[in-house]
Amino acid sequence: MRVWACILILAASMASAEPKVLERFDAGAGERWRYIGDNVMGGVSSGQAQIGAGGLNLTGQVSTDNNGGFIQVRREFSGLPEGSEALVLRVRGNGASYTVFLRTRQARLPWHNYKASFVAGAGWSEVRLALSDFERSTGLLAKMVSPEDVKSIGLAAYGADYEADLWVGEVRAE
């Protein structure tokens, strides 16, 4: 009897460790992701997001002039899968640094979030961002991201003057 209980517990833990694809950027992805630029706050960055055969492509010119400094695409979620420990993105780009922003149910103001950055090189690669490595923007948020509380994921060119060219082919949780 104990052997069967151990097998069931092991099978359940292995099932929860399976990666779960959150986005493949298929034909319906255009309705799930929305572009946001810093011009909503007076900034002067410009950009666009397009979804094609290779995935989502975020391009534009990021400018820190006039207190700006970002272009972003965002998708709403009703939590990440239970037991998620990381986000894994399949990306390529122009060698620049990009940022993933997570907003949770506890975020009260638009600038309350968790963030982690990565570099997107010329060839397709996978970037694994452990949830424990995301930094909170304010002490009003819990120290660590709780997967079930994530309400949106933002993919952004952020924080410096540069030309953005980021491709994202897949987003998954593991």
Plain-language structure description:
The chain is mostly beta strands. The protein has one domain (19-173): Galactose-binding lectin (Jelly Rolls, Sandwich). Helix content is 11%, strand content 47%. It has helices at residues 2-17, 29-32; strands at 20-23, 33-37, 46-52, 55-62, 70-76, 86-92, 97-104, 114-119, 125-130, 135-136, 150-158, 162-173. Strands 1, 3, 4, 6, 9 and 12 form a six-stranded antiparallel β-sheet that branches. Strands 2-5-11-7-8-10 form a six-stranded antiparallel β-sheet. A hairpin with a 2-residue loop joins strand 3 (46-52) and strand 4. Mean pLDDT is 91; it is low at 3-16.
Strand-helix topology:
Layout: H1 2-17, E1 20-23, H2 29-32, E2 33-37, E3 46-52, E4 55-62, E5 70-76, E6 86-92, E7 97-104, E8 114-119, E9 125-130, E10 135-136, E11 150-158, E12 162-173
Antiparallel strand pairs: 1-12, 2-5, 3-4, 4-12, 5-11, 6-9, 6-12, 7-8, 7-11, 8-10
Gist of the model:
This protein is mainly beta and 174 residues long.
Helix percentage: 10-25%
Judged by helices, strands and strand pairing, the structural class is: mainly beta
Tally of separate helices: 2
Number of DSSP strands?
12
- CATH superfamily heading: Galactose-binding lectin
CATH architecture: Sandwich
The topology string of helices and strands comes to: HEHEEEEEEEEEEE
Low-confidence stretches: 3-16
Globular, elongated, flat, extended or rod-shaped: what is the shape?
A: globular
Mean pLDDT: 91
Q: How far apart lie the N and C ends? A: 31 Å
The first-level CATH class is given as Mainly Beta
CATH topology: the name is Jelly Rolls
